[in-house]
Amino acid sequence: MNNNTAHNIDKSPYKIVKKQFFLISENDFILQTGERLEDITIAYETFGTLNAKKNNAILILHALTGDSHAAGVYDKKDEKPGWWDIMIGPGKAIDTDIYFVICSNILGGCMGSTGPSSIIPGEKNSYNMNFPMVTIPDMVRVQKRLIDHLKIKKLLAVTGGSLGGMQALEWSVRYPDMVEAAIPIATTMKHSALSIAFNEVARQAITSDPNWNNGNYSKEKKPDIGLSVARMIGHITYLSDKSMRMKFGRKLQDKNDLPFTFDTKFQVESYLKYQGEKFVTRFDANSFLYITKAADYFDLEEQHGKGSPVDAFLNAKARFLVISYTSDWLYPTHESKAIVKALKKNRLDVSFCEIKSEWGHDAFLLPDKRLNKMIKGFLASVYEKIQGATNNEI
Amino acid sequence: MRFDLKIMASWIKPGSTVLGLGCGEGDLLYYLKQEKNVKETGIEIKEKKVALCIEKGLSVLQGDINKEILDYSDKSFDYCILSQTLQQAYDPEGLIKEILRVGKKAIVSFPNFGHIKIRLQLLGGGKAPVSRELPYQWYDSPNIRVLTLEDFKIFANKIGFNIHKKAAIKPGEKSHEGKIVNFLPNLFATYGIYEIGK
User: Fold this and answer.
1) For the segment B1-43, what is each residue's pLDDT rounded down to a tens digit?
2) Pairing assessment for the beta strands A319-325 and A350-355 based on DSSP bridges
3) A58, A72, A129, B129: least buried by Cβ within 10 Å?
4) A53 touches chain B (CB under 8 A)
5) Mean per-residue pLDDT, B138-160
6) CA-nearest residue of chain B to A324?
7) Domain endpoint, select from A297, A327, A355
8) Cα–Cα distance between A316 and A28 in angstroms, integer?
């Protein structure tokens, strides 16, 4: 029967996936700020099959503007697969023939999980800026409810880049007994002044758009200009000096000579404008404000180690693979090395590789054989070890 | 596996914790992990080699051994391995002291610059020696320390560490073959391997 189904799914190279929803209805969810959040919905997708021992589950944690759609397509007509399809799928580095992969939209997001654009339970309006402040630990605590709901006692691995990497780190220290391995990629233990600065400029762009209206905007009159400028700023931080030089240089859009007018565009300007305009069709401005603030507040050292990075990982048990990129100036290698140092000082099992790349912070989302091979080998080794351990128990 | 690595592996007790400094593509660590159930950690500076190690499932960190070793507390490992790296160390004395701090024991190997062919090249040709073991010209050699088996013995006395075991070897035509040199080792062995401790 499975063969038939597979046959019917056309010639699309992508697997069909379906967005699912999990409701935390107990109304007992207290956020880090102490506020209660009722009726939390979490959108999630799964790829592959959970085995009988339920020990092959990998949780994928998405970045700032990602969603639960990590791989595959919703419909065979979809042209673009999920955001990490190059990594996740049958035979790929995170092999869905072997592993059961889960990805959920973060709390505060706008892709199906509860966030500022959700309707307040029992009311007609959405939260907007009345949505409580949520933190990275809150996002992770919600994900833990989902993992409990799926009856998985221990995740084989948690992994993600950027904001996803922060969640992976948070998982490893908050739920040490639930994480066999963690792969934080292009990330940090705490947001630097540089990252906070960029986020604040991006937020200012949104909040100074007259359409923002203190967060109470309508679908017809959204702060699109502000959000698009915010996205443009983001894109600059995801690239690097060299990648911009290679990609755009000083090339002009549709022109060969410089007429010295304001309507002439360098290619880099057109690119950013296009990215900004594309973004406003899929993302909510208030969500952007909340999530960037959650990133800025993230400080694993302070929260789990009272300021000491070494103490922050005192309870961690996972095996780690830390990855950074040479040209990432948003979360530079020294921030990954600080994580590695803290892990080493706790005598935790850690591997670390700084991948040479010209593509800046964005590199982790681009096809890269080296990263894929490392993740594949690392996961195989972690999985082999726990299978050996469970076999010995029998 | 290379003959010198085989000898080192034979000295390591099963189930030990091992720190491989400058572990390259991880051949020795992989063997120790598979065959001797060793808990391995490697440090290697070249990204490509680190990636190959991680692909094999080894726990390896990219970094400079001189700096990375400082993060480990005393006696963190049963063995520290410094294979073919001492002759490239900027501060051999500091490095040896560090490996004997973080490791209960250390295994060190290096090419023997006292080998007869090298002596003859310098004596007869009057040129900086180039051999199979030391294939570099003076201007492109990473081997910034020129030492012999005899020098290492003197070094041990000066620094104050003990030599527990030693093997002077000469690899054969094929890299996995070789023999132990017992007769005038400082003249006829191309490599020295030592287990040392405080």
Assistant:
1) 899 999 999 999 999 999 999 999 999 999 999 999 999 999 9
2) parallel
3) A129
4) no
5) 94
6) B62
7) A297
8) 27
Domain residue spans in chain B? 3-114+148-197
Instruction: Specify burial of residue A8 (Cβ count, 10 A radius: 0-12, 13-18, 19+).
Output: exposed
Say how many CA atoms lie within 13 Å of B28 toward its Cβ: 27
Q: How far apart are CA A35 and CA A41, in angstroms?
A: 17
Chain A partners of B37 at a C-beta cutoff of 8 Å? none
- Crossing angle of helices B92-102 and B149-159, rounded to 10°: 70
Query: Do A44 and A138 lie in a common domain?
Result: yes
Question: Is A235 known to be catalytic?
Answer: no
Residue A6: predicted pLDDT: 44
Residue A14 has pLDDT above 90, yes or no: no
As a whole number of angstroms, the distance between CA B192 and CA B198 comes to: 19
The number of C-beta contacts closer than 8 angstroms across A and B is: 56
In A310-339, the residues whose Cβ lies within 8 Å of chain B are 319, 321, 337
Q: How far is CA B22 from CA A99, B11, B41, B86, in A?
A: 33, 19, 11, 10
pLDDT over 50 (residue A1): no
Distance from CA of B95 to the nearest CA of A (A): 19
Candidates A345, A378, A384; nearest CB to B54: A378
> Do residue A137 and residue A218 come from a single domain?
no
Which of A352, A376, A378 to mutate against chain B (most B CBs within 10 Å)?
A: A352
Are A275 and A238 part of one and the same domain?
A: yes
- Please indicate, yes or no, whether residues A343 and A292 belong to a single structural domain of this protein: no
Which one of the listed residues A104, A162, A195, A357 is annotated catalytic?
A: A162
* Residue A328 annotated among the catalytic residues of the structure: yes
CA angle A320, A322, A323 (to 5 degrees): 155
Together in a domain, A315 and A204: no
Q: How confident is the prediction for chain A on average, in pLDDT?
A: 93
How far apart are alpha carbons A374 and B105 in whole angstroms? 31
CB-based contact B59 A349, cutoff 8 Å: yes
Using CB atoms, pick whichever of B55, B58, B76 lies closest to residue A373.
B55
Q: Is the ipTM of this complex over 0.85?
A: yes
Looking at CA atoms only, how far is residue B158 from chain A in angstroms?
31
**A342 in contact with chain B, both atoms CB, cutoff 8 A:** no
pTM for this structure?
A: 0.94
Per-residue pLDDT of A125-164, as tens digits, reads 999 999 999 999 999 999 999 999 999 999 999 999 999 9
Q: Select the CATH number that applies to the domain covering B3-114+148-197 from these four: 3.40.50.800, 3.40.50.150, 3.30.70.20, 2.170.150.20.
A: 3.40.50.150
Helices and strands (H, E) in chain A, number of each type = 12, 10
Does the annotation mark A361 as catalytic?
yes
- CA B181, B185, B187, B192: dihedral to nearest 10 degrees? 90
Report the pLDDT value the prediction gives residue A391, as an integer from 0 to 100: 59
CA–CA dist A190, A116 (Å, integer): 24
Could you give the number of structural domains in chain A?
2
- What percentage of residues in chain A have a pLDDT greater than 90? 88
For residue A103, give the CATH number of its domain.
3.40.50.1820
